[in-house]
Design brief:
Layout: H1 4-17, H2 21-46, H3 52-75, H4 82-110, H5 115-138
């Protein structure tokens, strides 16, 4: 049973990350991002007339800048090199971008689920992995 102690410590370490004031700020940024994301996605689809896939492609670009700047300065209070952090953020964003497009294509385009619900589910799942990656990779000091 000795081998379970490092796993237990690792589990409690990661759990503690989600109980921090930093995660609360991240959550607030995320909630405001969800409202802005869904609103602009809805407007791009219904007012502009874009398909859900094209709308999410355009929407992700504006959301990326919004989230990067609030996370850098308010959530993580990072004074690290802007260029290095922006590069890391863009790499992570590209991965998330691909996942979001595939997610929308598969669940909306292929399986026929509601595009707004599928976007919301994708955002919820990416919230968890992004917090850890932002903290330990993108905005690492």
């Amino acid at each position: 049973m000795q081998s379970s102690r490092p796993l237990s410590r690792l589990y409690h370490f990661f759990l503690s990350q989600f109980k921090s004031p930093q995660f609360l700020r991240y959550f607030i940024v995320g909630c405001s991002g969800v409202v802005l994301d869904l609103t602009t996605l809805y407007l791009l689809k219904t007012i502009v007339g874009l398909t859900p896939v094209v709308a999410v492609i355009i929407n992700q670009i504006g959301m990326g800048a919004y989230i990067f700047l609030l996370n850098k300065y308010w959530v993580f209070g990072s004074s690290g090199t802007f260029t290095r952090q922006a590069t890391r953020y863009i790499i992570l964003t590209i991965v998330n971008y691909g996942i979001a497009i595939f997610w929308m294509w598969f669940f909306n385009g292929y399986l026929g689920f509601n595009y707004l619900l599928m976007r919301l589910a994708n955002i919820a799942l990416s919230t968890v992995w992004n917090f850890l990656l932002y903290r330990f990779f993108v905005y690492r000091k």
